[in-house]
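yo

u said u wanted the structure for the complex thing, so here. seqs first:
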Amino acid sequence: QKEVEQNSGPLSVPEGAIASLNCTYSDRVSQSFFWYRQYSGKSPELIMSIYSNGDKEDGRFTAQLNKASQYVSLLIRDSQPSDSATYLCAVAIPGGYNKLIFGAGTRLAVHP
Amino acid sequence: KAGVTQTPRYLIKTRGQQVTLSCSPISGHRSVSWYQQTPGQGLQFLFEYFSETQRNKGNFPGRFSGRQFSNSRSEMNVSTLELGDSALYLCASSLEGGRTPSWRGYTFGSGTRLTVV
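structre next:
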């Protein structure tokens, strides 16, 4: 079982819709979770971090964490074509200093 | 504030050669991590340095090594290059020492794209 799992996609949504990206992780004691966005040919860019159960909102983005279900999600409201990218879920390894384990990423395509 | 700077941006090397990649973290950041990204394996952790000490190492062969200098700049070296080492090598820096739930994660550099022929 992979440590961090994501649906590879592509997830295709129309402009203006809500895009929902999901991620599950295997290590129950993980505490910190991150969403990165990576455009084709570019490096990953941090969008959100979350470490408490519940929702965390930042502009059009909402991260949701459910530690009991070992599940993290990212909602993108009012999706724009510029949101088309690969979204990487990452989990900090407990006691692993600054080490993140990344999922394979979900490719999001927002069409006009 | 300058971001994470990686040099060079592109490299083409021949099998059997060695290569050194450089990373300058954001000013004030003392933690530097390195990742290899390939289409098949995604982002794989190589190692992490904090205050010149390697604190964590991924599952890569000994041909992959790194170091960090007193100014927090870091280098990674790959010896005896293989075709499978062709990848995007990403450096990421972080302010905090880690090991806390509220750690805010990394900022990545633009990467060095290494092609081994």
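The CA atoms of residues 15 and 81 of chain B lie 5 Å apart. The radius of gyration of chain B is 14 Å.
cya
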